[in-house]
Amino acid sequence: MRKSSTLTPAALNLHDFYAGIERIFQNIATHVDRDVPAGSEWHRELLRQMSFEAPVVRPAVVSSETADALDEYLRFRQVVSNVYAFEFDAQRVLQLAESVRSCFEQARSDLLRFTDFLTDMAHADEV
What we know:
Shape: elongated
Mean pLDDT: 91
Number of domains: 1
Radius of gyration: 17 Å
Oligomer: single chain
Structural class: mainly alpha
Number of helices: 4
C-alpha cells in the first residue's frame, strides 16, 4: 500500500474536523456578531474573531489556547485544500491525528460555555 493512500483519509478527516468547527464559527459571526470576515484571509480572521470578546455582544467564543490549537488545523486545512495527496507530510498528519481529540475537547468545552451564555441571554429576554 502506498503511503499517500493511507494518509489521504486521515488528512481529509482532519480537514473536515476544522471545517465543522469553522461552520459553527460562521454561524456565530452571522447571527450573533453580525460581522463575518471577508477577503483572502477570512478563515484566519474568523478564528481570531472567535477568540476575542465582542464588547456588549458576547464573550470570547473560544479561549486563546483553544484558538492556538485550532490554528494548527486551520493551517492544515489550507494545505489539504491546496496540495495533492502525495505531498502530505506523514509526520504532520500523524501529529495532528494524535492531538485532534484534545483539541476537540478544548473546543467542545469552550463551545458549551458559550452555549450557556446564549441560553442565559435568551432567558434574560424572557424576564
